[in-house]
Amino acid sequence: MNCDKWQQLAAVRDDLSPAESAALDAHLESCAACRAWQLELDATLQALRQLGEEEFAPIAIPPPALPRINWPALAAAAAVIVMLGAAAERWFEVTRNPVPLPVTRIAPIPPPPDLRQTARPTPLPTRRRARRPQKTEPLLIKIQTNDPQVVVYWLVDGNGQ
Amino acid sequence: VIALELPNVTVRLARAGDAAAFEQLVRDHQRLVMGTAMRLVNGGRADAEDAAQQVFLRVYQNLNRYRDEGTFTHWLYRITVNVCRDINRKSRVLNFVVLKETPSLAVPADESLVAEQRRKLVAEALAELPEKERASIVLRDIRGLETSEVAVILRSTEATVRSQISSGRRKIKEIIERRMR
Fold first, then answer.
1. Buried b (16+ CB within 10 A) or exposed e, A38-60
2. Is the dihedral of CA B22, B27, B32, B38 positive or negative?
3. CA neighbor of B55 nearest in space, from A69, A55, A59, A51
4. E-strand spans in chain A?
5. Residues A39, A11: Cα–Cα separation, whole Å
6. Which of A55, B9, B83, B106 is the most buried (most CB within 10 A)?
7. CA distance A2 to chain B (A)
8. Mean pLDDT value of segment A38-50
9. What is the pLDDT of residues B77-88, one digit of tens each?
10. Which of B15 and A117 is assigned the larger pLDDT?
11. What is the arithmetic mean of pLDDT over A34-50?
12. DSSP summary character for residue B110
C-alpha cells in the first residue's frame, strides 16, 4: 500500500477498526512523510472542530402562524357535499322503488288509404301490401323501466283497447 | 450504536399544538440549527438565519409526521441539511462568483493569529467541498456526531460516510496548504 492509501486511512483515524489502526500505526512509525502529513491534518481538524464552538446570539424566529381558514370556500364545499348527498339519497331511493314510466295510450293506426282507388298508373307491389298487419292482430308493447329487471308488457287488441 | 430517544415532553406538547412548547423547542435547539446552518450555507449568517427560520417552520409543519424514528435531534439535523442544500442550490451562481473572488491569504507570524487564520481558511475550504462531503464533515467534525449518526441523518451507510469524511478532510488540508503558499 502506498502513502496515498495510508493517508486515506489516516484521515479517518478515529473511525478505524483495531486492525486498521494497528496497521496504520506501524506504517507511521516507519514513514516520516506520513507522520508529518498526519500532524498537519491534526492541526486542520483542530481548527475545524473549533468552528463548532462559535456562539450565536439568539435569533428571532416568529412562531409559525396557524393556517388561515378560508370560510367562503369552506361553506361552498359544505354546500356541494350536502347537495351531492341529497342527490345520492334520491338516486338510491329511485333504484330501490322504480317508478314505471308513464304509458300513454297508443291510438290505433289508421289503415293506409287504398292505393288501388287512386289514379296512380302503377300499383304498389303486392309484397308490400301483404306485410301490412291485420286489423284484428293483437299488438304487444314492451316498456322498459329504469330498472333493467323490471319490464312492463302491454297487450293491445286490434281495436287499440 | 445509536441510542433511541423517546420524544421528550416538549416535543409531545408541541406536537399536540402547544404554542409555548414549540417556542421552547426553538429555544432549546436554536444553537444546534444555527451552528450547523452557518457551516452548510454559503451566504454567511444572513443565509443561516434564513435557514433556521425555514427549519423551524418545517418542524412545525411536520411535527405530526415525526414518528420517533431515531432521535428528535437526528430528525432536526436532517431537516437542517436539506434546507441548507435547497438554499445553496438557489444561490449557486452568486456563490460561485464569491468563491472565485476570495483572495489568497498571507499567514501572520504570531501563533494565535496563525490559529485564527487557519480557522478562517478552514471555514473557506469547507465551503468549497462537494455537498455531501461538506455535510458529513460538518456533522462529524463541527457538530461532533458519531459516523454512525451521520449515516442515519444523511440516510447513507457508515462506509460511505467514512469515505466522504476521509476525502473531505484531505481536501480541506490541501486547500489550506495551497492558500498558505
1. beebeebbebbbbbeeeebeebe
2. positive
3. A59
4. 139-144, 151-156
5. 11
6. B83
7. 16
8. 91
9. 999 999 999 999
10. B15
11. 92
12. S
CA distance B33 to chain A (A): 10
Across A44-58, A93-107, B20-34, B151-165, the highest mean pLDDT is recorded for B151-165
Query: If phi over 0 gives left and psi between -120 and 50 gives alpha, with beta otherwise, what is residue A31?
Result: beta
Question: Nearest-CA distance from B93 to chain A in Å?
Answer: 26
Q: Which of A14, A38, A42, A56 to mutate to test the interface with B (most CBs of B within 10 A)?
A: A56
Of A8, A48, A52, which is closest to B166 when you measure between CB atoms?
A: A8
Q: Choose the mutation target among A6, A20, A39, A44 for the interface with B, i.e. most B CBs under 10 Å.
A: A44
Check CB contact under 8 Å for B169 and A12. Answer: yes
By the 8 A CB rule, do A140 and A155 touch?
yes
ipTM: 0.78
What is B113-180 written as a DSSP string? Answer: HHHHHHHHHHHHHHHTS-HHHHHHHIIIIIS---HHHHHHHTT--HHHHHHHHHHHHHHHHHHHHHHH
Residue with cell string 317508478: A99
Q: Which residues of A130-146 are buried (b: 16+ CB within 10 A; e: fewer)?
A: eeeeeeeeeeeeeeeee
Tell me which of B47, B118, B157 to substitute to probe the interface with A (most A C-beta atoms closer than 10 Å).
Answer: B118
pLDDT in tens, A136-160: 667 777 777 777 777 777 776 756 5
Max CA separation in chain A (angstroms): 134
Task: Report d(CA A4, CA A34) in Å as an integer.
Answer: 9
CB contact under 8 A, A63 and B19: yes
Using DSSP, state whether A144 is helix, strand or coil: strand
